[in-house]
Amino acid sequence: MADTALIEKAKKIFENFLVKQGSRKTPERFSVIDELYLLPEDEHIDVEGLFLKMRNKGYTISRATIYNTLDLLVESGLAVKHQFKDKVALYEQALTYKHHDHHVCNQCRKIREFSDPKINEIKEAMGKTFQSAITSHSLVLYGDCQIENCESLIGQQLF
Questions:
Q1: Rounded distance between C-alpha atoms, residue 28 and residue 125, angstroms
Q2: Residues with Cβ < 8 Å from 74, sequence gap 6 or more?
Q3: What are phi and psi of 108, to 5 degrees?
Q4: Which of 20, 37, 56, 64 is the most buried (most CB within 10 A)?
Q5: What is the DSSP letter of 106?
Q6: Does residue 153 have a pLDDT over 50?
Q7: 103 has which bridge partners?
């Protein structure tokens, strides 16, 4: 869960970004920052989930505004967008972002984040092999849930 200082920092960065872009600084756009940065750091959310969360809190905001604001947040470096297999785009906060990779369960759809120094070694080796300065990478592992009584899997079966 983000603290208020982090949210205020994100809002200041976003405000400066909007001014440079010549875009409007609307309360709705800043409310998207509030809600995104109130999520746990390792949580990923889609537009529909964010829309429902905000509506349940009494915000009057459209899906289009959320889509557009998230695009601006990605462009400004305040959000990271992920596209996992057959899922819709998911977003996570980026201000405290440390590079990590993902494991996605094929059954329960739970997303787990992980880091392994061996991956950086592979990245460096491939950079040498291809004579390329590797600047980024994306690794997503997909697997089948084998967790006994998986809460996410049980929740999926209710629908």
A1: 45
A2: 80, 81, 91
A3: -90, -10
A4: 37
A5: T
A6: yes
A7: 112, 141
Per-residue pLDDT tens digits for 25-67: 999 999 999 999 999 888 889 999 999 999 999 999 999 999 9
As a whole number of angstroms, the distance between CA 147 and CA 159 comes to 20
| pTM score of the predicted model | 0.77
CB 147 within 8 A of CB 103: no
55 phi, psi to nearest 5 deg: -65, -40
Cα–Cα distance measured from residue 4 to residue 101, given in angstroms and rounded to the nearest whole number: 27
Phi, psi of 154 (to 5 degrees): -65, -40
Between CA 64 and CA 48 the distance in angstroms is 11
The C-alpha angle 139, 1, 111, rounded to 5 degrees, equals 30
Task: Identify whether the C-beta of residue 85 lies closer than 8 Å to the C-beta of residue 142.
Answer: yes
**Average of per-residue pLDDT values in the chain:** 87
Q: Is the predicted pLDDT of residue 1 greater than 50, yes or no?
A: no
Close Cβ partners of 42 (under 8 Å, ≥ 6 residues apart): 92, 113
Burial of residue 136 (CB within 10 Å: 0-12, 13-18, 19+) is: exposed
Q: In this structure, what token pair is assigned to residue 59?
A: 């915000």
